[in-house]
């Protein structure tokens, strides 16, 4: 394969996301799904990647995404719990008692 064609194929998933999100203003959920399909098709049809490797990478990506969502959900839950219980005000008072400088 010519080098220029290889570069174009390698940037195809990123270009797909840019086109759908920025140019066409589609939703992120739709854009990422289409980018996944483009990436999978490119890996299988152009690069000759085995289906098992693509499926394994997909499962790995899903597990990583769920792990991150679990962490973010816990952080948001803790933030709202601190806000409702008045913990944020206590923390803010503690910092302002150290120094009146807001930095």
Question: What does this protein look like?
Answer:
It is a single chain. Helix 1 (3-23) runs antiparallel to helix 2. The termini are far apart. The mean pLDDT is 90. The chain is built from four helices and no strands. By secondary structure, the protein is mostly helical. The protein is elongated and about 65 Å long. The chain folds into two domains: 1-49, no CATH class; 50-103. Helix content is 84%, strand content 0%.
Defining key terms:
single chain, 103 residues, mainly alpha, 2 domains, 4 helices
Write a concise synopsis of the structure shown.
The protein contains 4 helices and no strands.
Low-confidence stretches: none
- The quaternary structure here is single chain
Radius of gyration, in Å, reads 22 Å
Order of helices and strands: HHHH
Helix content: over 70%
**Average pLDDT reading:** 90
Rounded to the nearest angstrom, the distance between the terminal CA atoms is 55 Å
Query: How many helical elements?
Result: 4
Query: What's the domain count?
Result: 2
- Principal-axis shape: elongated
Strand content: under 5%
* Class computed from helices, strands and strand pairing: mainly alpha
Largest sheet: none
- How many beta-strand elements? 0
